[in-house]
Design brief:
This is DUF3310 domain-containing protein. The protein has about 90 residues and is mostly helical. The protein has helices at about 10-25, 35-45, 45-60, 70-85. It is built from 4 helices and no strands. Helix 1 packs across helix 4 and helix 3 packs antiparallel against helix 4 (about 70-85). The longest helix has 15 residues, at about 10-25.
Amino acid sequence: MAEIDYKFNEDKYIAELKEYIDKTYGQHYAQDDGIQTLEFIKSMGDYSGFCKGNAIKYLSRYGKKEGKNRKDLIKTLHYVLLLLDEE
């Protein structure tokens, strides 16, 4: 397969997103028993709405908190990926 010449640095942003997501598995997002808060929310039946709300929250505050904070965009993408898992 030929190597793709990404015109808009998509490969770079995907790698950055993966690095961010990988870090969430070892931070405060996981409880002592290894269950992530998101897993608990999913078991309660509120997962889709929670993810949509957070995606909207982070996207809407982009450019407002600490200027153009790219972390807000990365977090938005993470919540959108979580919604894809619901498909």
